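chain below, 385 aa
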Amino acid sequence: MMGSSVMNGGNYCVFHGIPHLFHSHYIIFMRSSSTFLLVSPKRMNPSQLDCSNILFPFSFKAFCDTMKRVKPMNSVFTTEKNYHTLNHYLRTRFFGKVFKVSLNAGFTCPNKDGLLSTEGCTFCSKSGSGDFAGPIEKSLTDQFSHVKTLLHHKWESAKYIAYFQANTNTYAPLPVLSACYEEVLGIDPNIVVLSIATRPDCLPQEVVDYLGRLNKSIEVWVELGFQTMHPITSKRINRGYDNSTFTDAVFRLRQQGISVIVHIIDGLPGESKEMMISTARFINQHDIQGVKIHLLHVMKDTALGESFLNNPFSILSLEEYVDIVTEQLRVLRKEIVIHRLTGDAPKDLLIEPLWSLKKFVVLNEIDKRMRKNHWFQGDLHVPNH
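prediction:
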């Protein structure tokens, strides 16, 4: 189960039998005759140990007792997903747990305020897809503190992503935008990422240039709501811009070194499996760094929800969704970070599909299908296509 050796006068052991518990091979450093340190593998020589590598100290007896309680890997789960998870990216990039603090800065959207339309995208909720963002009646500072406190009940120690989520978060004059972003970035030194949800048609060059400057001091992500590559669907959901606008936005953001995360939706009315796979292939042709795959949620108080109640359309089953998502993963480049494979909808607003409320079941079914068939993200990707 383990091999041991001596390096620079310090005993260490590599436990090859525990990757299902600790996600990889870890190095155990002896600190005394009975206390050890579990150290993360960073392709480092054990002599390079420093405090940032230490995950936690433990007694050897406690470690062995823990191992006795762990079931074999194939009877519970595998530690490594068959796709590039956000959790893996964040832990590798920032060496610890990082969670999102979702914020509502009170912005609106050109698809709601009359510039393009007053109807909005048909699937969009009144909160502008910010149903889980901080309460809008609070300041950004108070929102951040409120959400952070809630999440710390689950994770005592973590770093943060400041996520401007609700509505279109670049749809305001630059001085207003910069004041909002910089207020939040000044709240806590443990904020390591600024993530901004917006539309591709709401990125004037002065805003892109500003974000590029900001990106030199903190990692900036821009999340683009794209949803579908198909013009007929785009018109049906009242998206309000064409594909060339998306392509141009990605290009200009990448010129500034800004990471681009793209949102797509599976199950939009009238779309076949082949159309959804085509959307994944289309965004894969762009220089994007992440993707969020959402299941269409038909919700109350939306144009789509009203349309569905009056004239129901086909809703994806769990099996259909799993089939589509696994193939989308396989056509996406392996280096693209998968930020999301399903979404959340408020239970009191959700009309369909009700099976989506069991989020972990959905994720587990995706994982099971990938593992059972020995499929991996990118194994259907053809370069330059």
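The longest helix spans residues 318-331. DSSP finds 13 helices and 14 strands in the chain.
thats it, cya
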